[in-house]
Amino acid sequence: MLMKEYRICMPLTVEEYQIGQLYMISKHSHEQSERGEGVEVVQNEPYEDPEHGSGQFTEKRIYLNNKLPSWARAVVPKIFYVTEKAWNYYPYTITGNACSFLPKFSIHIETKYEDNKGSNDNIFGSEPKEEETEVCFVDIVYDEIPERHYKESEDLRYFKSKKTNRGFLQEGWISTHDPIMCSYKLVTVKFEVWGLQTRVEQFVHKVIRDVLTLGHRQAFAWVDEWIDMTMEEVREYERATQQATNLKIGTFPPAISISETQLPSSARSGPNSAPSTPLSTEAPDFLSVPKDRPRKKSAPETLTLPGTGRRDSLFKLPSFFSWNSSPQPE
């Protein structure tokens, strides 16, 4: 098991991001979906939890036909998808996913949002842990993203919002910008397979970091498109976009699915909200693992499969993966 805490600051307020997150996820999922691949929304409806209160339940299927390595395609049905179930009690969410094809593999993400610069060291509780959790600060402006995802219009060093007058974010912007908020994500990755565990868990975290950087970056780059929306308006946009995306993907019968992991007792009646776990030999067009990142190379970009002598990219998480699905309606 490898646990890391990610802190992603944004030049927004927590209240604003409730709208922006919904808009970004819907638009991004539609852009990255195509016939037979992408995100199909099965359910998206209000949910009431006795402990967490009003929230939103979302169930999605993420189709992975072309995102499996060649060795996996040989043994799974033609139609392979991830099922993601999410309970979102904005500004608090929990997500737990596990793969039926890889039963020893799971990802659990707990997310909280606060209006600060990422300075809350006890946001997930101060009880002692078996080992220290690594804290990773993500800079949506200056952390590099895969070159194929670079768009000049989304380069936050040169972007300025016409409606909010925020932008042209320079070095040190997190210390000086007002407003400022932070998305805190406690991510636990498990791959309990002897000989591969450490490398796979490190690799998945590496890709999750890229996903988080890209998603939060786009949320601000598109701010002028959503900043004037009400919750009712963004929900209508979400419904229309989800219908269009489902039509774009097409309808498929169930084959192999991925079910959520066991959540803490406090969350089993509700929470869960965010990622899913695709696999791929070749990086999907909408998310490749960067080859020339300046960050520490803490994990391999390819993994050698036991008994084959081959080196395959084992896990590629698409960029709709790691942010949370649906803040609750107002």
Summary?
With 330 residues, this protein is an alpha+beta fold. Helix content is 22%, strand content 24%. Catalyzes the transfer of phosphatidylinositol (PI) and phosphatidic acid (PA) between membranes. Binds PA derived from the phospholipase D signaling pathway and among the cellular PA species, preferably binds to the C16:0/16:1 and C16:1/18:1 PA species.
Q: Could you walk me through the main structural features you see in this protein, from its secondary elements to its overall organization?
A:
The longest helix has 25 residues, at 197-221. By secondary structure, the chain is of the alpha+beta class. It starts with a strand and ends in an 18-residue tail after the last strand. It is globular, with a radius of gyration of 19 Å. It contains six helices and ten strands, in the order βαββαββββαβαααββ. GO terms for molecular function: phosphatidylinositol binding; phosphatidylinositol transfer activity. Residues 262-314 are annotated as: Disordered.
